[in-house]
Amino acid sequence: xxxxxxxxxxxxxxxxxxxxxxxxxxxxxxxxxxxxxxxxxxxxxxxxxxxxxxxxxxxxxxxxxxxxxxxxxxxxxxxxxxxxxxxxxxxxxxxxx
Amino acid sequence: xxxxxxxxxxxxxxxxxxxxxxxxxxxxxxxxxxxxxxxxxxxxxxxxxxxxxxxxxxxxxxxxxxxxxxxxxxxxxxxxxxxxxxxxxxxxxx
Lengths: 97, 94
What we know:
heterodimer, A: mainly beta, five-stranded antiparallel beta sheet, 13% helix, 39% strand, B: alpha+beta, SH3 type barrels, 5 strands, elongated
């Protein structure tokens, strides 16, 4: 789908946010989850998986190891909100100036 | 490695859009790193090696992770640095 994941750049990466993706990495590793963000420095993907037992698993795939990223589906409003709030600090501390 | 801007240098609007996207993505990534502090993390390395450790911190370039109680096949290392180049992925429970 893409030539080299780590060279895509922020405007391309951000299009994958809030999508459920399958990431192939290394020789034979495959990870699936909702894409929360892509670190613009290392191109690493953060995938979130809301388990049925109520827990949340987070998989981070290092940008250098990414072979392929496939989009499976897009988040609805509810899922997007869930993703947006999953790592917000309990106290309201914004990094914005 | 910090990648250089893919946006055309001649187009300031494009550059600004790119910078905004970059900051949104990075803030979210940093919050994720913050939430990992003191959590048990499973690292998947090359050659199917899996190790577990308690996450401490990452450097800004995401080149090394500082961890504690690194469980390796030959014993437990109290404090360690993991080279990110050796890691394929890692997993933790939020």
